[in-house]
Design brief:
Blueprint: E1 14-15, E2 32-35, H1 48-59, E3 64-67, H2 71-77, E4 87-90, H3 109-123, H4 125-136, E5 142-145, H5 152-163, H6 168-176, H7 182-192, H8 208-222, H9 225-231, H10 237-247
Parallel strand pairs: 2-5, 3-4, 3-5
Antiparallel strand pairs: 1-2
Helix pairs in contact: 3-8, 4-10, 5-6, 6-8, 8-9
């Protein structure tokens, strides 16, 4: 099964199934997805491509959307279109917004982004726990997303996959898959902001080293991602078991 699902307007939509996980089980296909902004599915009457994207999205049978963006981003760029039976949760995990596109060209992406992820992991503890609670409920198929589907989305993907027992190398590799969407994400930025300059050459890139540094920071402070979830998010064994029960193959 292909991990990336092709859309015209969405560039980074993919299935998190198939990874080996705890107890010899596997993350189930077709139950958990990650994406860039689903606001691009709105106004299906605008053109045929957009209408086709919405049809493809609905065909996945998704019941739940977790939108990790700031409310002002949702207001500016739109949210997933309303659909009967589709639950929507706006859980903004990033409390200190910044302009990634406008960063100085000399900013090294690996330590900078790893530091930002660490910041979000602590600032957004309440929202991250709530996201896990939503995922643990009878909510699948479920998709979570931010703007580009890379940073905030990558952090939640790491947390969920780690609690499912997925190996660190697979988590890092999944993060780096955004690299396949980088060119389209950059082109979209230029099309959206033609009067601005994209200053940071690392915009839209997802080097594996970012996630490795972030994982190392969590491990140094909490012993593991599971330790972080327990100590910072208050995630107990029951919640972990519920997430695994929803997302792992029998």
């Amino acid at each position: 099964m292909r991990r990336h699902i092709v859309f015209e307007r969405l560039h980074n939509f993919r299935d998190l199934g198939g990874y080996p996980a705890a107890d010899g089980r596997t993350v189930a296909w077709g139950r958990l997805f990650r994406s860039d902004s689903l606001g691009k599915l709105r106004d299906q009457s605008v053109d045929q491509a957009q209408a086709g994207d919405r049809d493809r999205f609905l065909a996945l049978g998704i019941r739940t959307v977790i939108d990790l963006r700031h409310p002002w981003e949702v207001e500016r760029s739109g949210r997933v279109p309303h659909h009967q039976g589709l639950a929507y949760h706006n859980l903004s995990i990033e409390h200190r917004p910044y302009d990634q596109a406008g960063l100085d060209p000399d900013v090294d992406p690996a330590p900078f982004l790893a530091g930002k992820y660490t910041e979000v992991a602590h600032d957004g503890a309440e929202e991250l726990r709530r996201a896990l609670e939503v995922i643990a409920g009878d909510t699948a198929p479920l998709v979570f997303h931010c703007h580009s589907g890379k940073d905030r989305t990558g952090l939640l993907a790491l947390l969920v996959l780690a609690l499912l027992g997925v190996d660190e190398d697979d988590i890092v590799a999944d993060f780096a898959l955004t690299g396949l969407a980088t060119d389209r994400l950059v082109a979209e930025w230029h099309a959206s902001y033609p009067d601005l300059t994209l200053s940071w050459p690392a915009y839209g890139h997802a080097p594996a080293e970012v996630m490795r540094l972030f994982l190392a920071a969590l491990t140094a402070r909490y012993g593991s991602v599971r330790g972080y979830a327990a100590e910072r998010l208050g995630v107990g064994d029951d919640l972990v078991a519920a997430v695994r029960g929803r997302l792992l193959t029998p």
